[in-house]
Amino acid sequence: MNHPRTDTNRFAPGTFSRPSAPASVRRMTGAQTRMELSLFLRNGEQLLVALIIPLAALVALVAIDFGAVPEPRVDHAITAVLTMSVMGTSFTGQAIAVAFDRRYDALKRLGGTPLPPAVIIAGKILATLILVAAQSVVLGAIAIAMGWRPGPIGLLVGAVMIALGSVAFSSMGLLLGGTMRAEIVLGLANLIWFVLIGAAGLAIGVVELPHRVAELLVVVPSYALTDALDTANNGGLPALAAVVLIAWTAVCGGFAVRHFSFT
User: Fold this and answer.
1) How far apart are CA 99 and CA 93, in angstroms?
2) Which helix (H) or strand (E) holds 246?
3) Predicted structure pTM score
4) I need a labelling partner for 221 at 20 to 30 A (CA). Which of 123, 174, 230, 237 fits?
5) Cα–chain center distance at 114
């Protein structure tokens, strides 16, 4: 006796004779980007590092009179705070997420799917850029409410520098998260983040430095990005800082491509 659910075919003949066409690269990249954004927004620790702490730092730098930060304080504080936010998402968040994805074999399984590796990388980069842009808008709007008045040229140059900084710190995050154990990355990424925050603070005058020391510190990526945003805010063109960020991208990106491990 035939079972009523198996003696008839609900699909038209030839339905499965040809495999379905793969999705376009654009659709795959969009889906991967949405997944990366969703994973980030579910992680409260990363949101804390990327937005809440920078917001608290902005309020503190403007409200508390300490250090040699020039007036108006908000004009200089916002540059260091934007750098802090970019590092939180692009470096710390990226490194920790990649390291634990490797630990739990998520990257290994994802690499075994028909999804091309280029799409995986593009999805991570696009998600990072979208998050950095959103954070910058939120922090910038709050700074404007506190008295910051940027010019249109400064905003444009600053946006370009934030993008360069985001790519540079993402390269650093991928190198760290893709080459070390998750437990080591968790501690080391946060430690490096705090050290880089200190360099960003030095760039806006939290501690007054000799001119020669300031010239040497420009090779530190957080100092370079903060200095670049400050220069852009004053209507200048931060060519040297841009070169420094591009160099960090090239070096860390090159090592990440060579030594990155999916397991």
Assistant:
1) 10
2) helix 239-259
3) 0.85
4) 123
5) 26
